[in-house]
Amino acid sequence: MVNSTTHRLSIDHYFSSESSLSIASENGIEETQSEDSNYILYQTITLLYSHGITEKLTGEYGFAYVKNVYKGNEAGEREDVILTTNVGFDYLFRNWLMASFGFSNYSADSTDESLSSKRNEFFIGVSVSL
User: What pLDDT tens digit does each residue of the chain (130 aa) get?
Assistant: First the structure.
């Protein structure tokens, strides 16, 4: 059995009917079944700003900070810091059809160099709801 404890705080603020800001923070500890560690201390902070540009077009900016510290193994501890930013737009063609497009930047920095990475992604999507 894997045990975990989490504390989460979330604040949502609506500047107007068109724009909002969501901030969330989460801290916790999670027991693992991994050979690399016995447990993980983690901290996450996310920010999402959304603005309705027109009735059909919405823009979003997101940021996330994640810090994981792996503890309890004989080789020492490992620490990972992950930063993600993204900018995207949603266009509502119909109530049931939405297109999304945007850009995302991901950066992972780890004390284990083989796990450090960076990437930039462009994304395009279509959502159909029934």
Answer: 556 788 999 999 999 999 999 999 999 988 877 666 678 889 999 999 999 999 999 999 999 999 998 887 666 688 999 999 999 999 999 999 999 999 999 999 999 889 899 999 999 999 999 8
How far, CA to CA in Å, does 88 sit from each of 6, 69, 91? Answer: 29, 30, 10
* Look-up of token digits 């503890």: 71
Q: What is the pTM of this model?
A: 0.81
Strands 97-110 and 78-94: antiparallel
Sign of the dihedral through C-alpha 55, 57, 59, 60:
positive
The length of the chain, given as a count of residues = 130
